[in-house]
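seq as requested:
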Amino acid sequence: MEKEHFRFYIQVRTSLGETPTAIHQDLITFGGEKAISYSTVLKWHKRFKDEKMDIEDEPRIGRPVSKVTEENIALVRSLIEEDPHSTYEDIQAVLPLSNWTIQTIIHEHLRLRKLTSRWVPHELTPDQKRKRVEFCEENLQRLQQEGFKLGDIITGDETWIYFRKIGRKKENAAWIEEGQKAKTVVRRAQHEEKRLYCIFFRANGWFTVCALDKGETLDSDAYIEKCLRPLVDGLWKERPKTGCHGLKLLHDNARPHNSRAVLNYLREQQIGLMPHPPYSPDLAPCDYWLFDLLKRGLTDQKDDDTLFKSVFSVLNSIPEKEYKKTFSKLVERYKLCIKNKGEYFEHSNE
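struct tokens:
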């Protein structure tokens, strides 16, 4: 069968409301190995859906140019400046250049790379950027000049952990054969089963894990009783002579953490506080490291007991050197924040 016949068949079936998958399956049944590819069916199906009924190839302006010249470099630069989201195909549709030429111009001559737009937790004001720099400088000074060690820091935070794991979008990607449909993953409902966990850890590993009961909210009283008190009790057992003296707690500025009751309790227990700037998950080890690693290691759970055991299992599987490394990264992040004048810095050039 000639290609025009294939295209005419696709045109007729498209007008009857058939899907590209169904059309391709019929072509395979009829033509076997000689059938055209699914991508070709998809291209012509889209064209006919757009009411472009001509089955002939569109005229081409000759063979693509494969020469890298100053003129071509300037043309590619102007197109990218006009639309920074341009793809190789977009540029090739405008300029008679080969794909290899376009890639060579972009990467070797223009020295460009494409990065995905990043999400940031907050649109920082100039004052907030200034505070981020000040807090980082203060913490670095303590670590460098006051004999304060990374091993003296205890950090922790709360996070919601769901019973059902759905994974990241990239983790759900899978290779499939032509004609197959991608598997579906049901998004979590607003009230899907989950529990609030509070985890504290140090440079030598996790220290305490607390889970709030179903329906329980975290206010300052609950934070003291459910989270801080088990932490303090564990420290006294580990350090019966010195207790919490000399230790520093790093947690974020959530409302329960900054209440007067919590501050008084920490003062009574001789636990100091590491200054932490507002809107700064990029400077909190729980946010930039632990919680993401923990949730990627979990699977579906049937009840509270299995979830609790699984959380412990994942935390125990993390080598001690990784806990230590994340505190070294904290120092690097303080420096990056200062270098970037308080801006979020995950995608900055170091």
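The first helix runs from residue 3 to 15.
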